[in-house]
Task: structure prediction
Amino acid sequence: MTIALLTLACVFAVVSGVNDGGALLGTGIKLPSVRPVTGIALLMAAVAVVPLVTHRVAVTFTTRLAPMRDPGGQAAMALAVLAALVVVTALSARGLPTSLTLAIVGGVTGAGLGWGLPVSAGGVVFVLVVGLAAPFVGALVAVLVNPLLVRLADGTSLPRWHRAGFAVQCLAYAANDGQKMLAVFMIALGASGAAPGVCALIAVLFGLGTIYGLPRAGRTLSREILASRPVHGVSAELASGPTVIACAAAGAPVSMTQAIAGGLIGAGVAESTRRVRWHPAAKIVLAWVVTLPASGLLAAAGTLIVKGVIA
Result:
């Protein structure tokens, strides 16, 4: 089971790069101040280093939702990851990009219940409430940030704001959303913390996925949900980064892509609601709504089937 879960953990890290990395780079894709190769390198560095300083969100995945270190935890985590990957792949194939973080939260909860682990109702509710609030908070902050940025930033200073916003965004992802990858490795290896070698491996796998997923994910956020200008992307970065870092401080895993999408919509609404392409935005929200329960049900069903076969 350890080898199987390690293999899944590697696949999960690559898929996280495909699903998340392009979205992180896509907000500022119209600005040349952070080129893709530089952006990917910064993301990889953050993913490799930040968990060595704090891995509080990873611990939420391994213990706060359900005690995945208990007997049967490895099998439950493997089924949770499989369910998350299946749901995200199926929705993406239907043109509904979604949150891998929501999927793994649902998968861990469903697999824990199916395996008979003591799932924490309070922990699940806490994660759901914070996760639901994060995109709205990101949107609200962007509504406030965008007019200020329009006043403060001109054509020469906007790239500097972009570099600062992107750096904060990288730190936020590594401190929060990105730690779902570390959590799977921790359960596979029976570890209680972040090892430098493991974090470096995760960063490499994540980077490979980001390279592959950049064109699709970046296009979805930066073009489809908003008739955007560079200032909108920078506003979204400056709004989503601090929002996600605040959630990480509370140990609450939230989706960086959700916070970015909320930030882009908020930046657009700050100027005119007509800037937002509401139909694609509604499709993304629909995918978010479906993702968690679908992953939970699939993981629970898979766990019950596996337990029945073993018995």
Observations:
- The chain has a mean pLDDT of 88.
- The two ends are 17 Å apart (CA to CA).
- The chain has twelve helices and no strands.
